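Form 12-C: Joint structure prediction
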Amino acid sequence: MIWEVFRRGRAGAAFEHSGSVEAPDAEFAEAWAREQYGRRGESVALWLVPRDAVHVVDDWADEFDLKYRRVDGYSIKARLKEARSRVGSTERRS
Amino acid sequence: MAASPTRQRRYELELLGLADDELIVGWRDSEWTGIAPMLEEDVAFSSIAQNEIGHARAVYELLGDDADALAFDRRPEEYRCAPLVQLHLLDWAHTIARRWLYEVADEIRISALRETLPLAAKIDREEQYHRMHAEMWHERLRDTAPFRAAVEELWPYALGVLPAEQRNALAARIGRPVVDAVERGEHVDGFTGLWEEMTTVRRSAPAGAQW
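Section 2 - Result
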């Protein structure tokens, strides 16, 4: 049985998929995931999810090229520049 | 701790026995690195073996200035480790039986040391995880014939890890009667071979190998 491992690197950070372990049950999965994804102090928490429990969505129909729906559909560079100059700042906020 | 020299000496010998147990069980368990039954278990088992060797280092450092000298510069007959940890076990049932018996015994021993050894609490935090690992395997294997036979065979050795006054506690935890133990101080046949391999680098570069 494959368990997908999601790792939280620090408090408040999002869980990220980090890999998987093969284990017969949750107890073994925990023991093995602790070693492979936590023993160097790289995780504050793990999620272990049976692979079968993951509902996969990977088919995306975009037959009519509706690019205005996508983020690469338009450039906002020029408009951003204009807005910045309006508020008198050229610095990006991070 | 204010103690008479003899009592102090006894205490130091007890700690030396503990450190030697951790070093040798770590060494023996590390022999599974690369060949454990599952890849995931290989990683876990090797990591636990490393932890045990780390515990040995911490205790050696309490006993002397140079942990490496204590770990590698003694003659084989000077090691105080219990025969249980010296055994060269070639199958997984015996290996897990030893891990489980050793962890239960070690818990009893470490908790008895808590008052005199501040390091004990720190060691025990890692051992909690080792116990979880050992218990999980024990639950899985306990009803299998190879595991039962292994526990039966190793039981007198397990008793030898602890001083006489702690053996009843171990017997109660394992659910077996106290029998004649294979006592600390004896060395099993394979121990000299282990010592030779373990000290090869040290003996070839006594001033300290550079990595």
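Section 3 - Comments
The helical segments of chain A are 26-38, 77-87. Chain A has a mean pLDDT of 88.
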